[in-house]
Amino acid sequence: MDPKTNLEYLDFLSRHLQEFIAVFDEFMTLHVENTGPNALALGIAPAVFERDGADAGRVKELTAELHRLSGTLMDLSEVTSIYMTVQGAGTIDPFMNWATMLQPKPLLEASNVRGCAVQAAGRLQGLRAKAEALAAPSLDPVRLHPLVWAAACRLWNDGHLRQAVAAAGEAVTGQMKQLTGRNDSADTSLWQQAFSASSPEAGKPRLRWPGDPVDQDVRTMNDGLRQFAPGANMVIRNPATHVDEALTEQDALERLATLSVLARLIDSCAVVSVSAGERTSAV
Prior knowledge:
Structural class: mainly alpha
Number of strands: 7
Strand content: 5-15%
Order of helices and strands: HEEHHEEHHHHEHHEE
Helix content: 55-70%
Shape: rod-shaped
Strand order of the largest sheet: 5-6-7
Radius of gyration: 33 Å
Distance between the termini: 45 Å
């Protein structure tokens, strides 16, 4: 995945950059910059000197922490496209090379490191906003059809993903059985009969998409449900119930989503029975 669009990684870089800035600021309270009219051998001597009387132990701790944090920011320059161009050295990473300001012939000054860090923080904010705008929508199982999630919830939260799918499949099948008032045949057969193109028979009502049955769109929906509903039972509910094979979270979630679609479609269907002679809205 592109790190520029990975929200989790952008947040990781942002957190560690803020830590780097805070530690760097404290580090600089114990140092003085070799700048201004009284600068010593500018460009030859280090750009930063330890301040007289500074706590040497604390300086050592902060130096180690800056080295650690710069390691966590190893991709920051690439992600934010922030580099420093130094004559004779070319393009360098200002975060990985922050400590050169302490060395003779320093590549960086403290103002370079600080300025690059502030600019990188701003760019990370922009990248995060862009990544959020482009991010694909997430599927929260809680927002699935209530029938599906109610059946799957406890098992899902306990980590029993395959069993959660099986329970959801049973619940949707139960929805169909309740509407048709039938439980006298194998489930797949009942699904096929529920959406059969044949007219309802005594004791064998049908489920139909609402609308004029001769309308092309209505016919298409009924034809699709005739294949989709039994198919979902065969390829989702049956394997989850009878095949002892673990499902990944992604696989299980996709199966629950498919069952959720089926449950919502059934909600919109009408029950057609031979005795009523007309469609009545399904509950």
